[in-house]
Write a structure and sequence with these properties.
Elements lengths: L3 H8 L8 E4 L4 E3 L13 E4 L2 H6 L3 E2 L12 H14 L7 H8 L3 H12 L3 H17 L5 H7 L6 H5 L11 H4 L3 E9 L2 E7 L4 E7 L2 H11 L4 E4 L4 H12 L14 H11 L9 H7 L6 H9 L26 H12 L1
Parallel strand pairs: 2-4, 5-8
Antiparallel strand pairs: 1-2, 1-3, 5-6, 6-7
């Protein structure tokens, strides 16, 4: 019998599926990602390994070559990134991208987007935009530009994004960054805003002004901090967004793995006054099995209120943990429901 999850993987041609399937009527076995026609469910035989399929008398498909020394999806995605990053001056067509990774243009697009949260084209555009700016001040490497463009896309870092996630590191504690900051007392306690030249990178709640500044220091221990009263506007905008729904979003400088960026972006789509559970958010993102990874990404959010991780509640509607204190979360949610 074929369980529902495996059948879904086969229908979806899920490249992450670890099994191979044989088709009783043809005697051929395939990887779920094979581009061949989907078999009838009743003809399917599922095997954990290529060896098992062979032992059961099935022959490998010539199209998907399930017996070929396999490249994992991670490898394929990495090879796509390489191709793009090695050719910053040329637009790589999807067909070429797919060919290099052994998949169709359609698959290449879909897998890339699922892993990095942006389409290959958007990624190339971002790289190029950055390239232009970097080109003006010399010495920027492609890797720097990728990082600067907001994608943590070196293969090393990428490995952590495939639902396993590594804890985010903001460029080694913000080394060499100038972060301006400002603190204000608000209805929800002390609020501190920290911003790089690109936008807000830290918005946190604290009990005292001192705690607020210390929170910034410990998040970015290697950054140069400078007080800037102009950031008070961002704090007021954050409070107004919660209390009145008036949305003035200052530019944000969110940095993290591709997976974290996806989660934070999904959080920003939850309307004021609404809440979701981690599971619901994961399903909205098309990652129903990733509630835990989603929860971890929410817990590492650096920009409170504008990236509304407070709109995530427990399965029974109860307020669950909040980086800046559950009581504050309750207060904020109440203010939103007004
Ligand atoms: Zn096949």
């Amino acid at each position: 019998m074929v369980d529902e999850k495996t059948w879904r993987q086969i229908l979806d041609r899920d490249p992450a599926a670890r099994i191979v399937y044989g088709v009783a009527t043809t005697g051929i076995f395939c990887r779920p990602s094979c581009s061949s026609r989907r078999p009838l469910k009743t003809n399917l035989r599922i095997f954990a390994t290529v060896e098992d399929a062979r032992l059961a008398g099935f022959r490998p498909c010539l199209r998907c070559k399930p017996d070929a020394p396999g490249r994992s999806l991670d490898d394929k995605l990495t090879s796509m990134l390489r191709l793009i990053e090695d050719n910053p001056g040329r637009r790589i067509p999807l067909v070429e991208l797919g060919r290099g990774a052994g998949m169709s243009a359609f698959r290449a697009q879909k897998n890339f987007k699922a892993a990095f949260g942006v389409s290959p084209l958007a990624y190339q555009n971002a790289l190029r935009a950055r390239q232009l700016r970097v080109g003006l001040r010399k010495g920027g490497t492609v890797t720097d530009s990728i990082y600067d463009a907001g994608f943590n896309a070196s293969s090393q870092v990428y490995k952590g994004t495939n639902l396993g996630m590594t804890p985010a590191r903001f460029a080694a504690g913000g080394r060499g960054e100038l972060i301006c900051h400002c603190e204000q007392k608000t209805a929800f306690g002390w609020l501190i805003a920290g911003a790089t030249a690109r936008g807000l990178c830290w918005l946190a709640l604290a009990d005292s002004k001192l705690d607020a500044v210390q929170s910034l220091q410990s998040e970015f221990p290697a950054a140069v901090l400078k007080r800037d009263a102009a950031l008070g506007g961002s704090i007021r905008a954050a409070i107004a967004a919660i209390e009145t729904g008036k949305q003035i979003d200052p530019p944000l400088d969110l940095r993290g793995t591709a997976f974290q960026l996806r989660v934070w972006s999904a959080l920003q789509k939850i309307p004021r006054g609404n809440t979701l559970t981690y599971g619901q958010l994961a399903r909205k993102m098309g990652l129903p099995d990733s509630a835990r990874a989603v929860a971890r990404a929410c817990a590492t959010n650096r920009v409170a209120l504008f990236v509304p991780c407070h709109r995530i509640v427990g399965a029974n509607g109860s307020p669950t943990g909040y980086r800046w204190g559950v009581e504050r979360k309750i207060q904020i949610l109440q203010a939103e429901r007004g």
